[in-house]
Amino acid sequence: MLLVNNLEFSLSLSQASRNRVVSTDGDKPYGLEDCNQLLNRFFQKSSFKSPFQKNLLIVSVDDVKDSIVTIKVSSEEGNNLTVGWLHLDLKGKKLTNITSDPDKPISLEYDKSVLDSLMNNCTFSNTE
Question: In this structure, what DSSP letter does residue 11 have?
Answer without folding.
Answer: E
